[in-house]
Amino acid sequence: MFPQRLDSPLAYDIAKAMMDGFNRHYQLFRTESARAKHRFETADWHGQQRAQRERIEFYDLRVREASTRLEREFKAGEQPMDVWHQIKLHYIGLLVNHHQPELAETFFNSVTTKILHRSYFHNDFIFVRPAVSTEYIENDELATRPTYRAYYPQRDTLHEHLVRLVSDFELRIAFEDLARDAGYVVEELNKRLGEVKLRANFQIQVLSSLFFRNKGAYIVGKLINGFSELPFALPLLHAKSGKLAIDSVLIGEDDLLILFSFARAYFMVDMGIPSAYVQFLRSMMPRMPRAEIYNALGLAKQGKTLFYRDFLYHLRHSTDKFRIAPGIKGMVMLVFDLPSFPYVFKVIKDYYPPQKDTTREQIKGKYLLVKQHDRVGRMADTQEYSEVAFPRERFDDELIAEIEKFAPSQLEISDRDGDGQLEVIIKHVYIERRMIPLNIYLQEAFDAGVDDPFARGQIERAVLEYGNAIKDLVAANIFPGDMLWKNFGITRHGKVVFYDYDEIEYITDCNFRKVPTPRNEEEEMSGEVWYSVGPKDVFPETFGPFLLGNNAVREVFMKHHADLLEAAFWQGHKERIAAGHVHDVFPYERERRFVRKYAPDQAESKP
Asked: What EC number(s) is this enzyme filed under (predicted)?
């Protein structure tokens, strides 16, 4: 029960101190995001990468700071339940006119659970559901920008408005030829608009902040005409001349979904009211969960909160059971899923086969590396949870037996919350988007027969994408380690994404070698490795027997990606990365670049 009166001065002081902790966090988060503009203008790509990594750690650092302060100044963990009820009510009062109330609620949950642990932890003390609406939040200070700007062109003034729209971002670096690039954009938009009649409300709405990632900046907005809306994004890149260019135009929800994919690094965006950005982006990508939009904006803890709320809501409205996930079982991870829910749950096993020389902490370190690294659209983002409780009756008995056998330290079955219902409590779990494992995708095509044109096309697309995925990972300084088909998945957009991280290494930490020439017949005929192999040695020419057993697969692979079997390919990339080169990775097909479509004779821009 909540108290009838707010009669504890200490409760308000604790609530205010916690709010101060959140405000400090968001100020630092926003400052770092705003600095991305200067790093883009000065082509400080290594600084951009470093800032993207470091910003991920901001949240946990501020939670620790706030928890330490509350314990030191107020002995918060020793306060009775009545005081904690009042703390939450005072905090709600502080949220009423706040510009980031949903983020502040999540911060409250993080600090509260850290302080209270499970001594008398109860849902009354945290925000299980939002207490304050994020609808229609406005910042009325004169110096602030609105969430989005609106432009009202006619068909014959579209070019003029596009030039103004881009110029309004006031980048401190000149464009190579903005009028030329705006003309390309108009041409592409007119192809989509066709001869459609422009209605009275025809307008362009553009979010007021640029979206920065890697070597690119993106203008994100939508065309509105009558009852239809057409989302778009304009990638701005540094041209070889050192000036800026609009590199392409991404049009439609599918293009935007790939740009904001869970397999890409988080954007840096300066947002005063993040919920308004999420609402705008959701209007452009209604199929993208709000949790994933928050993630894409770098607000991963809020994404984690929303994901878990969505998950609990789904559990209440479904009846199917968790099961061992289809596919080849992993040596390191135990994977299960709920068929009706589009995610998989991955638990680190307690022990591994001899060939897997690793530990639980090393595996967690690999997953953290991926979280902080540029995923270049080729590595799935994961959400990490501890002490996750599931209803016992929703678990298949075979799955329980599997966990008891391979990860008993991660399993507790009890009525921890005292509601009379048994729960399965998983101590540590990673959750990521479900994809079709690439080996299963290929097997479906093999079963249909390689002479079937559709099956043949499926094989060609999969193998081509697989090689492209590895090359994108190489460009991002990532060696996948275990390159078997089963460790890659196909997304709904047909992109191949890597999701098995226990053996990944930095390319720059690997030593790529050719297999030595046998010195005699005995070595040549030996079934064992007769040459010395260091712990970081990699022999690319040995990949073939594991990957190319099927003739149809081998044919496509050797046509497009034979260089992946050569040590020189890997070593060359390693040397360029070590020399400081940041490779170009596009979140769209290279053929869609304006420099390729309209001026193939010109030097290419760099993303």
From this structure: 2.7.11.5, 3.1.3.-
Percentage of the chain beyond pLDDT 70 is 96
With a cut of 70, say whether residue 603 has pLDDT above it: no
**478-479 and 537-538 strand pairing:** unpaired
**What is the Cα–Cα distance from 553 to 555, expressed in whole angstroms?**
5
Q: At residue 1, does pLDDT exceed 70?
A: no
Degrees, nearest 5: CA angle 138-142-148: 50
Q: Is 381 among the catalytic positions?
A: yes
pLDDT of 66 higher than 90: yes
What residues are designated binding site for ATP?
325-331, 346
Q: Which one of the listed residues 255, 337, 381, 500 is annotated catalytic?
A: 381
* Amino acid sitting at position 336: F
DSSP secondary structure string for all residues of 421-490: --EEEEEEEEEEE--EEHHHHHHHHHHH-TTSHHHHHHHHHHHHHHHHHHHHHHHTTEE-S---GGGEEE
- pLDDT at res. 353: 87
Contact 449, 458 (CB under 8 A): no
pLDDT tens per residue, range 383-409: 999 989 999 999 999 999 999 999 999
Q: Give me the amino acid identity at 121.
A: F
The amino acid present at 345, given as its one-letter code, is: F
Residue 570, classified by CB atoms within 10 Å of its CB into exposed (0-12), middle (13-18) or buried (19+), is buried
State how far the alpha carbon of 250 is from the alpha carbons of 124, 256, 372, 587, in Å.
Answer: 45, 7, 26, 10
pLDDT tens for each residue of 6-30: 888 899 999 999 999 999 999 999 9
Mind giving me the DSSP string for 370-396? HHHS--TTTB---EEEEEEEEEGGGB-
Geometric angle at alpha carbon 446, from 442 and 451, rounded to 5°: 125
Residues forming a β-bridge with 223: 204, 230
Other C-beta atoms within 10 Å of 583: how many? 20
Of 314, 254, 255, 267, the C-alpha closest to 293 is: 267
CA dist 239 and 43 (Å) reads 11
Give the residue numbers of the binding site. 325-331, 346
List Cα–Cα distances, 537 to 152, 160, 523, in angstroms: 60, 57, 19
